[in-house]
Amino acid sequence: MTTSDENPAVPRLQKGWWVLHGALAILTVLALLAFSSPIADLTLLFFAVPGFFAAGLGWFVLVLGARRTWRAFVGPAVVVALLAVLFAEVPRQVRWAMSRPAFDELVAAWAAPAASTTPATVGWSGKRQVGAYEVITVSPVVGGYVFILSGGGFSDDTGFAYLPSGPSAALEGDGYDPDRFHPLGDHWYVWFDAW
Hints:
transmembrane; 6 strands; alpha+beta; elongated
C-alpha cells in the first residue's frame, strides 16, 4: 500500500474530491432555488443541469482513479437527497411559507372583494418584492386577487391567487383558466398559464 508521500497523485485526487463536493454544493443551491417557484426557473436550470452532468463525469473519473473512500459516496448521496427533496416540492413549500405573511398582509390591507362583486380597484403593475418573490403584477379578479410572478419561464405566466370562494368559471372573464389553479390552503392557490 502506498502513502501520499510515495504517490503524488493522491493529493491531487483529494483536491479533486473537494472541488467536486464544492461544485455539488453550488449546483444543489441552484437547483433548490430553481424549483422554489411554482414553475421551475429555466435560467437557473440552464446552468444547473449541465453542471450536474459535468459533476457526474468528474465523479466517475475520480472513482476510477482512487480507492473507494467515504468521499466517493458523498456525490451520489447528495443527488439522491436532492431528488427526494425536489420530488416532495420542499423548496416551493418552504419559500411559500416564508413569503405567505407578506401576501396575507397585502390581501388584508386590500380587503378582498366578495365573489359576487366586481373587482376592486387595487393592485399594481411593475416589479415589487413580496416576501421571497418578485411580483410583477397584481390583478384584482372577481372574488380575489391574482399575483403574477417574475421568472415564470420563457412563455408561461405563473403565480399565486387569493380566492376565498375558490377558482370559478368567473375567472375565465378575467382571462384565467380555473383548472390551472391548485390549492395551497386557506384560500390561497398556485397557478400557471401555459401558452
